[in-house]
Fold this protein.
Amino acid sequence: MRSLSPAAILEKNKLYGNPFILCVNLKLPDGHTVHICQYDKPITIAGITYEPFPIHIGELKENNKGELTELPIQISNVAQELIPYIEDYEGLVGQEVELLWVFLSGSSYEVAISDTFQITSCSYDEKTISFNLGHYNLLDVLIPQRKVIEQCQWEFKSPECGYTGTDATCGKTFWDCIQKGNERRFGGFPTIQTNRVYL
């Protein structure tokens, strides 16, 4: 399992001032979308305001058979705002959830990484709603497509990378991509903990 070390997180925060912030877009069956963020105040991205909300995200990994497991995510149920939807729409199973990892760039927030999942199961109690998120039905897609790892998977200066500057080398890290001003084309997943997962 990979994760950013405390030293790496401290160094990144020292250089760039703010940690990554997790934002969630949860599409509801009535056409509305819930926009929440794992932060202590509202943030606005591309005209959409994400309200602060207690969120905990688990790790995406594979089991000993090489099969993909699901990504668990928990959100607070203190206000019970989602309970009517959960009860009326079978736990929101099948609904789309977009996860965004953003960072503060100057005076605005920029999206570093985004990924889209579907709710595969749901449970709740008076304090917490727990969703399991899965990617689209593996029978309907070709795999492997990309590895879910921290390092960038693009070849340096390739069309996917898109970097056209003067640097001759690349460290394959998101921090290096920020220094090059090319973070929007980063080809890795800097904050998901993984265990050799292939999508």
Q: What stands out?
A: The first helix runs from residue 6 to 16. The chain has a mean pLDDT of 77. DSSP finds three helices and eleven strands in the chain.
